[in-house]
Amino acid sequence: MNRIWDVAVAGGGVIGLAVAYELVKAGCSVVIVERGPLHGEAVAAAAGMLGAEAEAHQGDDFFRLCLFSRSLYRSWAAELEARSSVSIEYRAEGIIRAALDEEEEQELRARGERIPGAVWMDGDGLRRIEPELSPDVRGGYFFADDHQVHPVRLAEALRLASAGLGVRFREHTPVLGILTENGRAVGLRTTDGDVFAEAVVVAAGAWSSALLQTIGVRLPVEPVKGQCYALSPDRPVIRKTVYTRGCYIVPKADGSLWIGATQEYAGFDKTPTAAAVAELHQVASALLPVIRRARFVATWAGLRPGTPDGLPWIGPIEELPGLFVAAGHFRNGILLAPATGRLLREMMLGEPLSHPIDCCSPNRTKREERRP
């Protein structure tokens, strides 16, 4: 007889791993079913920025959710390292959001007026923080509480910590559909047989929409290709992440600089291209001219899961009891991982919510709009 798990998670990226980790800590039996290797998709388009303020457009409910998740990170990092013996390279150096031209300056100033606590700094002030910034930098913001992690190390730490607590993994096992019985979700149909569970979580990134459509639920999620590349300068050139329109530069613990990322609507194609890297490098070297002499290391690409309004889907599917979704995090998957894991666990186990999540509810659109 097939085992009945407490929870079956479709998707083994950072979000699926975070959900599984929080659930297994609460005593649930959890299995993750992943179409390929674990954390092989959106994490490849991530540099690990925890840019709750640097990427904010206004001080709304989603912004406050991002701040909440960011506040969890320092203790979460320590907890994961203790359980996995893997450092996620949590670095509390802050992010500089800089303007290189008048148009971007006007845009950033207008955005800053909607972000509580944002204080404009002129170019000289930013260069006192990071002297290698271009003399063309007109000004910007320094967000001291926006930190960073290593995305691949985060995923590996989550995998090891979850496995140590009893989470099981079925890699290279595509999910074909969601099993239902008597009007509720009861598991996953896979290429390797059925997986039965008391509850199902769809955390399949850019593939989530197609999976949900097998049971007639429409939650739009589309792949957004992000290309990145890495350089190795002959000496450390920045300590803080620097970010301008069109690119960011993230210094890593090994001395490399991660630069990204494009935003391309190209279906499920993940092929890196010379043109994209050249465009990124043009902007990056305008922001930080010293990198023109750095050694090229590698380029890569991944698929971020985007939604029409830019907000993730997190919560229960009201049409089908027992079915939950955590998908569509787009550029915020790494940042929102601890909050998504915690809040979904609280919803699934009937615990009080530690932070409001209505802005990301799958039910925020009318039901008829979500039907195919």
Automatic annotation (TrEMBL):
Reactions listed under catalytic activity: glycine + O2 + H2O = glyoxylate + H2O2 + NH4(+)
UniProt KW keywords: Oxidoreductase, Thiamine biosynthesis
Its EC number(s): 1.4.3.19
Name of the protein: glycine oxidase
FAD dependent oxidoreductase domain sequence ranges: 6-347
InterPro entries the UniProt entry points to: FAD-dep_OxRdtase (IPR006076), FAD/NAD-bd_sf (IPR036188), Gly_oxidase_ThiO (IPR012727)
GO biological process, one term: thiamine diphosphate biosynthetic process
Pathway: Cofactor biosynthesis; thiamine diphosphate biosynthesis
One example GO MF annotation: flavin adenine dinucleotide binding
Source species: Candidatus Reconcilbacillus cellulovorans
Domain of life: Bacteria
This protein's GO CC annotations: cytoplasm
